[in-house]
Design a protein that fits this description.
Blueprint: H1 2-11, H2 13-16, E1 21-22, H3 34-51, H4 53-61, H5 92-95, E2 102-108, H6 122-137, E3 140-145, H7 149-161, E4 168-174, E5 176-179, E6 186-189, E7 202-203, H8 204-213, E8 218-224, E9 235-236, H9 246-249, E10 254-259, E11 266-267, H10 276-286, E12 291-293, H11 294-308, E13 314-317, E14 330-332
Parallel strand pairs: 1-11, 2-3, 2-4, 4-8, 8-10
Antiparallel strand pairs: 5-6, 6-7, 9-13, 10-13, 12-14
């Protein structure tokens, strides 16, 4: 079986090269096991490295080629820059207040420039998650599809300007990603990303700066992309917070990340038109009633995903974006 599987992967390397979300060939005997997935990952890694070799070499020579500058006094809403990080912590006047607004930004990058392969599910994923967030938890939702680097930076910057400290913000990204082996730096690949240059890639460092600029005390990023586990590296969360009540949690600045996998390729094998991760994430959203803690949602999704495919979602806090010890993300279901 492994020999047959590897032959199928090798035959499809041009299509797999650089793919952030792994879509395996048809498996006559069902979902592959961990040994088979490891063999596939090695082949895919070789193909990806070959495809992105010019951009990778540029990153090694000039790591700052991807960096977005910070905004200055002369910049306006159309400037391509990162807003300044907001003050750490929750203002005393806000700490006693209930959540003012629930705001969601859902990014689905599907159509890429050749030779980066396009993806099949991100558009469907973000549309379905948008509907679930509106219906189950009363979110105000913005969809951003097939976003360039400029689109993505400006949209998140606008989100930072238009949310307040008593708000709850949820961001979902589905699209290509990449991880540098030697530096362990992760990247999102917007739809204008190139294999020739990394200038239009977005680094984890800049993603953290964008999160730091959003003043909301409740902030969660869900990333359905290969190597998205690198976003959880600052502080991996393996146990439930010892919070005493939602009121106590809302006194903390919470910046959490739920990744669809660790530092490995993740599956784009479809379930009713969605990635395996998105499908199980949707099932978990459907069950929200009352107040659900982010860690509990993560555990439910992780168990369901890993039962379906050899990938392990991860959960962590972004300390550099202002997460405070004891913070958590709270999903509040609408009354029936």
């Amino acid at each position: 079986m492994i020999r047959t599987l590897l032959m199928a992967v090798c035959a499809s390397l041009p299509a797999l090269a650089g793919a952030q979300i792994f879509q395996p060939p048809p498996f006559a005997a069902g979902i592959p096991g961990s040994a088979q997935m490891q063999a596939i990952a090695i082949q895919q890694h070789q193909a990806r490295t070959l495809l992105y070799r010019e951009a990778i070499e540029e990153l090694r020579r000039t790591p700052k080629i991807v960096d977005v500058r910070e905004c200055g006094a002369a910049d306006d809403d159309q400037s391509l820059c990162l807003p300044t990080a907001r003050s750490a912590g929750v203002p005393a006047a806000v700490a006693q207040m209930p959540t003012a607004r629930h705001v969601a930004l859902l990014i689905g990058n599907q159509r890429y420039q050749s030779p980066i392969p396009s993806l099949e599910t991100p558009g469907n994923d973000v549309e379905a998650i948008a509907a679930a967030l509106r219906q189950k938890a009363g979110f105000e939702v913005q969809l951003l599809k097939d976003a360039s680097k400029a689109d993505l930076i400006r949209t998140v910057a606008a989100l930072a300007r238009n949310t307040g400290p008593a708000d709850s913000v949820f961001i979902y990204y589905a699209g290509h990603g990449y991880l540098m082996d030697d530096t362990a730096m992760g990247y999102w690949l917007p739809t204008d990303a190139s294999v020739k240059t990394a200038a239009r890639w977005i680094s984890n460092t800049d993603i953290a700066k964008l999160l730091a600029a959003i003043p909301a005390r409740q902030l969660m990023l869900v990333s359905d992309s290969c190597f998205s586990g690198s976003l959880t590296r600052e502080q991996t969360i393996k146990t439930r917070s010892s919070m005493t009540s939602p009121t106590d949690v809302l006194r903390k600045r919470s910046v959490l990340v739920l990744s669809s996998g660790g530092e490995e390729p993740v599956s784009d094998e479809g379930k009713q038109g969605h990635s395996i991760f998105a499908w199980h994430f949707l099932r978990s959203l459907d069950q929200i009633g009352g107040t659900v803690v982010g860690y509990d949602l993560y555990r439910q999704v992780r168990k369901a995903v890993s039962n379906d495919f050899p990938q392990q979602p991860e959960y962590g806090a972004v300390i550099s974006a202002g997460h405070e010890n004891g913070g958590e993300y709270l999903f509040n279901g609408l009354p029936h």
